[in-house]
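Reading a protein record of the kind used here takes only a little practice. An example makes this concrete, so a full record is given next.
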Amino acid sequence: MASVAGRAAASTRDAFPPLPRAVVQSFYRRMRAVAPAAVGAIERDRAADAERAFADTACGRLARSLDDAGLRALGMWTHHWCMRFYDDDTRVGRRLVREIAVRSGLGWTADEVRWMLRESVWAGPAAAERFTLPRAAAAQLPPEERPFGELRPGHWPESEPAEGQRTADPVEGHPTGTEPDRPAQSDPSAEATSGRAGGGEPTGRIAGAMALVPRQRRAG
């Protein structure tokens, strides 16, 4: 599988009405603020004992150091990373996403949920747990503000198989048999960021925190 970063998004771009540019750029500014610490925490936890309690992990310590707005930014960045590099080992990132998802009272906004849902739709059903955080964040909104009703038919999160129903690789935890039906393309910046050496197998290292915010969206 190839990273979703190089995949043409034209087929899913209209899943939601476009967000105002100023709103999207504010999201990226907030995510860039937490990205370096998030990359460091994820790398340390990928090299450590996976059985440790979350509170004892680098990601857990990072989460404790942030206020509600910082936690939302960390959740959005980690969700983006898991969706963009679903074909790499994202277990540490997905654990962080799950931990943020169960936090109540973080002050999620409808536009933050829309942005995360768009990332989920672009990734396709091969990305494990792609609706975990946007679904949890939407549940904290007033019912009339929840944007799931804005998704076009065919992009409903309710149509996703439960995690226990996925066919997963026992080593990497990646679902199989759920490839998105969009053509994959290579993106040099994506391969460098996901830790690939010479376009080959993942090296397990995350490089270039700022590159995880796609170049075409970093203007401003």
Notes: The CA atoms of residues 30 and 73 lie 6 Å apart. The first helix runs from residue 21 to 46. Residues 4-217 form one domain.
